[in-house]
Amino acid sequence: MIDLYTAATPNGHKVSIALEELELVYTLHALDLQAGEQKQPWFLAINPNGRIPAIVDRAEDNFAVFESGAILIYLAEKTGELMPTDAKGRSRVLQWLMFQMGGVGPMMGQANVFHRYFPEKIQPAIDRYQGESKRLFRVLDAHLANNEYLAGDYSIADIANWAWVHTHDWSGVTVDDLPHLRRWLAAIAARPAVQRGIIMPPRAERADPTTVRTMLETGQSR
């Protein structure tokens, strides 16, 4: 049994989708980020960084894992699925997972901040982060022109990147001119496990932008 501590965000959805794909039994605990539940001492004992998602694997002496990428790797290695075991295949998956962790997520996250939440429209910042998000999308599109998935078979790399890229409209970035990326987005969206995982937990009403800005500025977000 796995306890999943999460919220309806791209990083949270990475793990709920993976759990559904792997058909692992889990208990979902939805944290109220606006109320700062992720900063409570009981949760900091699970994730010292005070961010979602995190899991506790009850079958492994209550072993806690935080950081979405680390959780995906742990679950894939625990089950022997969604990641090859040979060195080269594993490396390919990890390369595209790190591409999301170090590029797609941070750039789209900053695009969201400046495009959606800041009351001042700081256009150079908006242009910077939307432009870099689009550049990364082009990298994905070019790779997917000759590959069905990012690293051979469907893997945690696809789950991680999809969880962010499918929210491109919220970041103000279009994919209309990226046919291979759109094909990949649609194919993954059609998977039953993805459809189950993306609604775990149900999305709450979006927070007031002023509240979100305060959370961002004080390090309380996520």
UniProtKB/TrEMBL annotation:
Ranges of residues in domain GST N-terminal: 1-83
PANTHER family: DISULFIDE-BOND OXIDOREDUCTASE YGHU, GLUTATHIONE S-TRANSFERASE-RELATED
CDD domains in alphabetical order: GST_C_YfcG_like (cd10291), GST_N_Ure2p_like (cd03048)
Family per record: Belongs to the GST superfamily.
InterPro entries: Glutathione-S-Trfase_C-like, Glutathione-S-Trfase_C_sf, Glutathione_S-Trfase, Glutathione_S-Trfase_N, GST_C, Thioredoxin-like_sf
PROSITE patterns tied to this protein: GST_CTER, GST_NTER
Ranges that cross the membrane: none
Domain GST C-terminal: 86-210
Signal peptide: none
Protein name: Glutathione S-transferase
Pfam families: GST_C (PF00043), GST_N (PF02798)
